[in-house]
């Protein structure tokens, strides 16, 4: 009989956000995966269409045009950028390259669902440090949890699913205490939705601390979730490790072309982000009038720490066509959607009777 090794057998399977609702014939709003509610821009579709004409060839693994455009945009050297099939794959590469059996990879919990899967898949040991009661990273507890086996620390800011951002100075003080041989990965998948001036700015911290890498994605703010394009900004010694474990030809020319077109269309995309931020503010203003424990969000979703009521609230929202992402016993993460979706959400929340 074919058998999985013990470290794989115990991995919880990644559950994608739900996308259907039974028994509801009104509009359905899929707010379970933090996707951008806007369809791709015409200029991006054009770039994809043009790139499709060479899909009988393998893609250019060096992604030269995208690398040059992004390096200029971020003010980093081209050699400081590496792409992958979504930032989740780049996170996996970082873990595979720098942690193995007997090594520990630390992250806050609850945080991005993929971390435990990626860490266990690499044969390393996950170390989960609980968030504070107000749903934030507990940085002193993370420092205290460092052991000689710690190889990587993920800081997800803004944090999925709670939306809370780590403060810039707070993270700076944390980094000053982390031994320099530990790689700290600042996962900024939602950074484009961050508007608190005191929230951590990963790229600035990257410049200051040689053991920091930053993860970004084109999936969320740039709306390219299905094309799978993410990247890390990191130093040469990190890049060397990544190059050894990266999936060959993972990032298609189509994704690269879409990335370049998206960078060219940033003003249009920013206008969409601005609308989402207004919608987030409206949702938060509504939530402030309720007694839900919902921390201020710096991301494109809100978190309702519904605790034991999570399943009942999720069932109620689903019965109204609202699909959020429920973590039983903990809470529901709901993406900021179109204005209609958000109105439907407010209406659905308003009609829920708390037990
Ligand atoms: C914190 C965080 N990091 C990384 C990702 C991965 O995004 P992608 O692989 O689409 O770039 C996600 C997606 O949900 C996320 O929430």
What does this structure look like?
The chain is of the alpha/beta class. The chain folds into 2 domains: 6-40 and 267-350, Alpha-Beta Complex (Aspartate Aminotransferase, domain 1), CATH 3.90.1150.10; 42-264, Type I PLP-dependent aspartate aminotransferase-like (Major domain) (Aspartate Aminotransferase, domain 2). Helix content is 38%, strand content 15%. The protein has 13 helices and 12 strands. The strands form 3 sheets. Strands 2-8-7-6-5-3-4 form a 7-stranded mixed β-sheet, sandwiched between helices. It has a 3-stranded antiparallel β-sheet with strand order 9-12-11, with helices on one face. The chain starts with 5 loop residues before the first helix and ends in a 5-residue tail after the last helix. The mean pLDDT is 96. Bound molecules: pyridoxal-5'-phosphate.
Brief characterization of the structure:
By secondary structure, the protein is α/β, with parallel strands linked by helices.
């Amino acid at each position: 009989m074919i058998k999985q090794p013990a470290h794989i057998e115990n991995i919880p399977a990644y559950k994608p956000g739900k996308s259907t609702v039974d028994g509801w014939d009104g509009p359905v709003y899929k707010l379970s995966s933090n996707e951008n509610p806007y369809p791709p821009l015409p200029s991006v579709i054009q770039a994809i269409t043009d790139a499709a004409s060479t899909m009988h060839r393998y893609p250019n693994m060096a992604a030269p045009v995208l690398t040059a455009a992004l390096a200029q945009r971020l003010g980093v050297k081209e050699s400081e950028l590496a792409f992958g099939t979504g930032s989740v794959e780049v996170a996996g590469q970082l873990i595979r390259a720098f942690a193995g059996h007997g090594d520990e990879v630390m992250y806050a919990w609850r945080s991005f669902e993929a971390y435990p899967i990626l860490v266990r898949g690499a044969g390393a040991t996950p170390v989960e440090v609980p968030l504070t009661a107000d749903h934030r990273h507990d940085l002193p507890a993370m420092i205290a949890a460092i052991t000689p086996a710690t190889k990587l620390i993920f800081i997800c800011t803004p944090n999925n699913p709670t939306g809370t951002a780590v403060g810039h100075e707070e993270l700076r003080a944390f980094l000053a205490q982390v031994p320099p041989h530990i790689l700290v990965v600042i996962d900024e998948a939602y950074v484009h939705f961050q508007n608190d001036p005191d929230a951590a700015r990963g790229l600035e911290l990257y410049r200051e601390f040689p053991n920091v890498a930053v993860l970004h994605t084109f999936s969320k703010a740039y709306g390219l979730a299905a094309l799978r394009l993410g990247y890390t900004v990191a130093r040469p010694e990190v890049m060397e490790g990544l190059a050894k474990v990266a999936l060959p030809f993972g990032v298609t020319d189509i994704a690269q072309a879409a990335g370049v077109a998206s960078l060219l269309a940033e003003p249009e995309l920013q206008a969409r982000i601005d609308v989402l931020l207004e919608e987030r503010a409206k949702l938060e203003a509504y939530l402030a009038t309720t007694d839900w424990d919902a921390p201020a969000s710096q991301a494109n979703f809100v978190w309702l720490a519904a605790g034991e009521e999570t399943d009942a609230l999720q069932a109620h929202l689903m019965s109204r066509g609202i699909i959020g992402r429920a973590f039983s016993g903990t809470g529901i993460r709901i993406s900021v959607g179109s204005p209609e979706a958000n109105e439907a959400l407010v209406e659905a929340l308003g009609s829920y009777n708390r037990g």
